[in-house]
Structure formats: C-alpha cells, structure tokens
Write a structure and sequence with these properties.
mainly alpha
Length: about 90
C-alpha cells in the first residue's frame, strides 16, 4: 500500500463524509439563522427556542435525503471493500 493510495482513500472518505453531512448541517444552519433573526427582531432571548425547529428540520431532512445518503455510503463502502484485494497484494 503506497502513500498515494492512503491519501486517495483518505480524501475519498472525507468527501463522502462531507457529502453525507452537508444537508443536515446546512438545514440546521439555515434554521438557526432564521430563528436568531426572529429573536433579534422580537428581542426574545431564549436559548432553547431554536432547539425544536432544528430538530424537526434535521428529521425532515433525514426523511427526504436519507435514501440518497445511504446510497452514497453503501456505494463508497462497496468500492472500499471490493478494492481490498488489490491493496493487500
């Protein structure tokens, strides 16, 4: 196993991780931004106010994007597992 192979596998793992995590993180970020703008406009300073909307948003995103996320992870794992014989020899 060469250093280039290790770096390629690490880069692919990071890309898959970012692709899978991005929808959830972006939804939580956008909901947090909207709630904080609402809090600033109404001067409501409650730290727990954004928890439920973020939780619902992340859940809805998981329901909508979940099949795609799982297919990306399964494709990556299939690629890694089928490539093991070529890495060992």
């Amino acid at each position: 196993m060469t250093p280039e192979t290790v770096m390629t596998m690490g880069r692919q793992a990071m890309e898959v991780t970012l692709m899978v995590a991005a929808p959830l993180l972006l939804v939580a970020l956008l909901i947090g931004l909207v709630v904080s703008i609402f809090q600033a406009a109404t001067q409501i300073n409650e730290a727990t106010l954004s928890f439920i909307p973020k939780l619902v948003g992340v859940f809805v995103t998981l329901v909508v994007a979940g099949p795609w996320m799982i297919s990306v992870m399964v494709d990556y794992m299939r690629q890694v597992l089928t490539g093991i014989p070529s890495l060992v020899s």
